[in-house]
Specification:
- The structure is a single chain.
- The chain has a domain of 64 residues: Non-ribosomal Peptide Synthetase Peptidyl Carrier Protein, Chain A (Orthogonal Bundle), CATH 1.10.1200.
- It is built from four helices and no strands.
């Protein structure tokens, strides 16, 4: 993450060039590698490897990712690009656009 040849277990993330964006990235990596749920606040408050290791021994397992569900017989909402195309095609045909919002 930091591009350093080595990091000591007691090195403070901020003292060795880290910052809050890297801490946010670390929460994602911890979730993927250890299947553990750490908040950004927990990482910011425990900036060394030793502190994070102790914290990991006490945290909850990661929750499964959220996946969208649709009711039986319905279609998922259109992607933003399809919604934009839909608005454009309605407008091109001279139909009312009052119920649609243009994209980007």
């Amino acid at each position: 993450m930091l591009g350093l040849p080595a990091v000591g277990v007691h090195d403070n993330l901020y003292d060795i060039g880290g910052h809050s964006l890297l801490a946010a990235d670390l929460t994602v990596r911890v979730r993927k590698e250890f299947q553990a749920e750490l908040s950004l606040g927990e990482v910011l408050s425990n900036p060394s490897v030793a502190e994070l290791a102790a914290l990991l021994s006490r945290v909850e397992p990661a929750r499964p990712p959220v996946t969208p569900r649709t009711a039986p017989g319905t279609r998922p909402p259109p992607s933003p690009s399809r919604a934009c195309g839909s608005w454009t095609s309605w407008r091109a045909r001279g139909r009312s656009t009052t119920s649609r919002t243009p994209c980007g």
